[in-house]
Amino acid sequence: xxxxxxxxxxxxxxxxxxxxxxxxxxxxxxxxxxxxxxxxxxxxxxxxxxxxxxxxxxxxxxxxxxxxxxxxxxxxxxxxxxxxxxxxxxxxxxxxxxxxxxxxxxxxxxxxxxxxxxxxxxxxxxxxxxxxxxxxxxxxxxxxxxxxxxxxxxxxxxxxxxxxxxxxxxxxxxxxxxxxxxxxxxxxxxxxxxxxxxxxxxxxxxxxxxxxxxxxxxxxxxxxxxxxxxxxxxxxxxxxxxxxxxxxxxxxxxxxxxxxxxxxxxxxxxxxxxxxxxxxxxxxx
Length: 285
What we know:
The chain is of the alpha+beta class. It has six helices and 13 strands.
């Protein structure tokens, strides 16, 4: 085993170098939040899906509509996947969303799609937990850093344990049921998530991903504007409020409600769905 490294004489100076933001967003096209705010004043419910505890369900949202993920009955976090309703290869890209907006999302942030499309899929228009900010531990809500609880990591860490209600499996079953795809084909479309209502961060000493009890309460919701026709899947995580563990049959779990709402079409006069990314895909060849 190699011995610990000895700090160089200029170690403090190297650590003191100021950071540089990787992706400055001053030139990023801004979401028309004033337009969305006006549109959301007159919303009409057109559908809803109740997601049972430790399960997932799919839902569809036409472009130009809003949808809300609402806490009902008790504190509960949810794992959200989004796809282009007409093309499953275009899906939510959590890593690029994180690079553009940070580790946690709230009002005004957008959920971006995968390459080669890289366009807004949904914009967050209301967040009743927006008051939380970042706590003394560095925790905040609605993260794009956790991947989703899954049966493969569970198997690895539990000496071969087989658990089928991890969010990855829940989302796989839901997508298979919605599309008719065999589970092994549906599974390849399941992707890293937006952890709705989950309170997370990184420990300051070891940099480890942590979770803590979600501050969500019944009635809280996260609201989105659908920029394109969306197919969504939401898993009510088997960790409940994630105050103790991810994959558990013992944690108190509750349902989540997805509401789809239609605005007055006149309120969105002039709005158009975003076009796919303009890069020519020649890659310098």
